[in-house]
Input
Amino acid sequence: MLGYIGRRAYHSIISLIGLLTLVFFLTRLTGDPSALYLPLDSSLEAREAFARLNGLDQPIHVQFLQYLQNLLSLDFGQSLRQNRSAIDVALEAFPATLKLAFVAMTLATALAIVVGALAAARPGSLFDRTAGLVSLAGASTPDFWIAIVGILVFAVGLGILPTSGTGTGLHWIMPIAVLMLRPFGLLVQVVRGTMISALASPYIKTAHAKGMMRRKIIFGHALRNSLLPVITVAGDLATGLINGAVVVETIFGWPGIGKLMIDSIIQRDFAVVQSTILVTAVAIFIVNIAIDLLYVTLDPRIRY
Amino acid sequence: MAIKSVHIVAGAMFLSGLAGHATAQNASEINIVLPEQPANLEPCGTIITNVGQILSRNVVEPLTVIDPANGQATPSLATQWTQTDPNTWRLKLREGVKFQDGAAFDAEAVKYSIERMTGGKVTCSNIAKFGAAKLTVTVVDDLTVEIKSDKPQPILPTLLSVVMVVSPNTPADKAVNDPIGTGPFKLASFTPQTVVLESFDGYWGKKPAITKASYVWRPESSIRAAMVETGEADLTPSIAIQDATNPDTDFAYLNSETTAMRIDAGFAPLDDVRIRKALNLAIDWEGLAQLFGDDVQRASQMVVVGINGHDDKLAPWTFDAEQARALIAEAKAAGVPVDTEIELIGRNGIYPNGTEAMEAMMAMWQDVGLNVKLTMLDVNDWLRYLQKPFPEGRGPNLLQMMHDNNKGDAAFTIPIFYTSEGSYSTVREPALDKEIADAMAATGEDRTTRFKAIFNKVHDELALDIPMFHMIGYTRVGTRLDWKPDITTNSEIPLANIGIKN
Output
């Protein structure tokens, strides 16, 4: 297992270098930051001085070599926007996203498994049809719309939740609810589909014939064997959330890495873009490893 | 049943324990929600809205302050000023002022602040207002400085309104996020979620009614408006017109911004003045104004009332489609290629209904026979067309733009738009260059008269652009505050001017 993790880490480092190289050149294609950091009526001299001050007057290959050299000494550059270390800016924002994504994903998965399993147990029932409708709506309703309606109803109308921000437990409720809606919707569909297949399997029929309790058959046998595809989809959705719940973070003023990444791209804050990509790529690598390890736990036939 | 009740009560107690998120605050403490996170807290960047609204006249103070009513420089840290020769100004500084870190405010501190600003080691947005001027500061005595410029600066006192004086302990070679000034408030904390300012006991002026101000940022206008409505915040600037629905809390104010279309006069058919006039005449201005709100004002020039050089008597173009068609026909008969495609370049999100305004204007121009095609660009692409050097291979184009001048003088507007060297200018008129240079060197009434003449010439004779509207900003102010926004609100919100109602 350790060998497997080592191999994955080695491949991930190569991918990471490729990714950072690509990001370095792509960000530079967006244009000259001085147009954004200096007032519109700045003189050409002022813009040239800005470029000199930030090393942007050098040819791009020289800038790239400098970047690689700095990486070796773990210098990820300075944020143009915030006047401080870019990696500090990224690492400061990351836990906020991670916490939000973890809670939302855990709740969405747990709820989806229960709802999906119960719906699959009685296909065509009222519960199944209601769950189908709700999950479809959850998977397809735009985040920003739900967020704004949620604020209007629960903050402005009823006055029971804060509009946005962080600080108290109440501040978590709306961002998590909005963030978990889409994963919940998709996962209910996946759980239901795989459970229906599993429940039609011969080993389930055998269990029935042996007189095993229905609850044990559904949750003890069929569900366990249906979880692999669920984990695959949940893993993808989780990495999506880590990569940035941009809309939710923007609307609710949540100081996470998704919003930071988008802001930094728009602001041409190159060092921060690179650092956010680095941090999220490493996190996604760790999530993927964790998913692989979960596979082994759930299905002993899998070996690495 | 009993167990269920216990759960409900416990849940309610838990929720009530979590609640109270925004209510537990002292009556003299306020929360302000801004549209954008400040990029940093460098005092040399206070002309940037999100920095200036927090720092300007709160943490750091300028040498002079512009009176929003008439654009004149009034005392702040400098109390008097005299021009000793065309290139030199002598300033008397305020007595009894100290910095928030205990350092003395004196002539040396002013010299240090100006040299930090002009030294080139810190990215300083404010210095842009000085153009290419080179300044030399000399200490005359403890409370007197002399500022010399390499060329005459008739409006130096006005320019000094962007010189934010910082403690001599501020590093000269790097931008800071922990500014120390002489203002009535000192920085208590700056995190990715909030900036907190607390009143400074050693302030030289009147003690403000507010003791603490916390700033947060939310980009969505509707969320910010809701925050004030629910009491989570006390004040938010720049809400969208559709959110300004409560006459008790929402104030409209002329925000010093003017929207216009720049005509790229370097290409046919736009190099013909008849076509440029036709572009102005073809717009149903009354109809277009519906997209901008009831309080908006028609513009005839690129600066608002109160800016030195604004001409009240200069009338905006009126709608006359027939005359527009006649001018186009006349130009066509004279050999102007009026059928050439003209690119109308808009900027996504420039202001509410900005895209709809472009679509409406395109339709009106097509209606009088011009071949106009709309392209909407994001800000980065749009900037390439706004500023020199312009993109290679561009053709005749009209550029949607918005210009902000709340600095009291048309010197911050006319040169960049209308001189051959102006960074936004597509014009090359040596005679106009000369007139502008003369106006820039003039002082007093003569300066005002010359600026007015230039605005008239640009409008009536040359029709170099299409002034649209002087824009209106909307600010929501909670009912417990006694404060109204004005033309300066886009660049500063002086907390000392905010009162608390009983």
User: Anything to note?
Assistant: The two ends of chain B are 48 Å apart (CA to CA).
